[in-house]
Amino acid sequence: MFTRPSQGGRKPRMDLLVLCILMTNMRLFSMAAMPEQSRLPEEDQQAAALSPHVPTTSLSQEQCYKIMEGKVQQVAMMFLISNKFVQEEVWADWLLPVADLVHPDIGCYPDVKKCYTEHVLTTPARSVYDEQGLYNFYVHSKPDTPPFKEGSVFAGRTIETLVKTKWGTHSLSKATRLLLTAALQNPLNQRFVLMCGTSIPLRPARFTYTQLLAEQRSRFHWFWYHEEDVKAEEGLRDTFRWPVPMHEEYPKLKHNIGKHSQFWAMNRKHAQIVTDDTFIDGLFDRHCYHSISGRKDIADRQWCVSDEQYVGTVLNRALGKASRAEIKFDDPAMLNWVNAKGFQPEDINLELILHARNTANMSGPSDDIWKERARPIKKLCKAIESPQWLVMEMNRTLDDMCAEHRATQGGRLLSSLTYYESCPLFLRKFLAPGTPEKLIDLLHELRITTTIQSAVDSSR
């Protein structure tokens, strides 16, 4: 036993010695019981303080999904392709500005950041797609379509189960259900957007993301949506163009009709309703044909077009009159312009893109609208394309930003951000090859212009 040397012939103070021994033992005991993160160096303790969980080993995907819930919200972009995908380069360029950027809900919390890095991002990155975590791409193409080349943002994004599709048949709806089923397997996907291979984005990826999350309702271009609406003359006419056996098998069909554009944006609840359906799917599969599909015996029934009626009918049947509150019927994400011939290279200019970005005219232009400009814009988009939410580089932690985020914005949902009506996000029918370079230049010009304008508008 250690004893202090005597001083002045006095005996050592035993009470002080016992006290020192007790204090030493208590300190050792408290360190043993102390949480692991409290024994980290000071700078690591500051980082650990941002999150109650600092994983020291890799977590399972299921564990990480629970940690990321509410903090990582993604958008499923589902591409239904009939032939060649023309606009690959446009989508790759669109993703470039959001590569390596994350919301502070991810960057300021080590456990979320670790899960995001291990289970959301792909390493090593094969394209810009693997460097971002806002969007997930899903592709359905015809089974005999050649795969995308290595390095494409769509490489490896084709879903496993494919069906042969044909215009005017229920096969398009079956392909759509397969896309939804694949996208729903990822619990981080909160919005589901149906696109086609000729679609292009009209607005920056970061702004588009916030707008899709800010609107909690599903977005459709809906021609009518409930029993009251089919009482109209046009509604009744199109209702009874459906095959009679279809009505005989399901007499309530006329009360649940949903006629809409093929392309839409849905929330997770509605996506799950569509994939869970079997009854309406079987009904359409047995009875719904378009006259061009080759059935001469139904040549007079021209409007049983599954891809424009199936999803809406399923939602009406499941939601009833609640569909009025849960679906936004007149503000689709995809601008519903009818141009059967598609936009040719000579049609593509700044005027076209600006007109598309700023119109909510759902009736669509005629094929020669770009020459005559005969149709006025009914509503103007008044969006300020400021991102509305902070982002940070994935490989940096900015202490000041994180402190501000925890104090003022922590846990804020994207659904609470400003939603701008009458502001389409996508446009389709860009069919001609050789257009991506021209489109990319125009979208770059708009990106620079709107960034400057947004800064001016925000300062007012």
Please explain how this structure is put together.
The chain folds into two domains: 61-218 and 332-368 and 375-459, no CATH class; 222-260 and 268-330, no CATH class. It contains 18 helices and twelve strands. The chain has helices spanning 14-33, 42-48, 61-68, 88-95, 104-107, 110-119, 171-184, 205-214, 233-239, 244-249, 268-276, 279-287, 310-319, 323-326, 350-357, 369-372, 399-409, 436-459, and strands at 74-80, 101-102, 135-140, 189-196, 200-201, 218-219, 222-224, 259-260, 265-267, 327-328, 392-393, 426-427. Helix 3 crosses helix 6, helix 4 (88-95) runs parallel beside helix 18 and helix 7 crosses helix 11 (268-276). The termini are far apart. Residues 1-12, 27-54, 225-237, 298-302, 362-377 and 451-460 have low confidence and may be disordered. InterPro entries: BC10-like, Glyco_trans_14. Residues 1-32 form the signal peptide. GO terms for molecular function: glycosyltransferase activity.
Please write out the topology.
Blueprint: H1 14-33, H2 42-48, H3 61-68, E1 74-80, H4 88-95, E2 101-102, H5 104-107, H6 110-119, E3 135-140, H7 171-184, E4 189-196, E5 200-201, H8 205-214, E6 218-219, E7 222-224, H9 233-239, H10 244-249, E8 259-260, E9 265-267, H11 268-276, H12 279-287, H13 310-319, H14 323-326, E10 327-328, H15 350-357, H16 369-372, E11 392-393, H17 399-409, E12 426-427, H18 436-459
Parallel strand pairs: 1-3, 1-4, 6-10
Antiparallel strand pairs: 2-11, 4-9, 5-12, 7-8
Task: Give structural attributes.
460 residues; alpha/beta; 2 domains; 4-stranded mixed sheet; two-stranded antiparallel ribbon; disordered N terminus; disordered C terminus
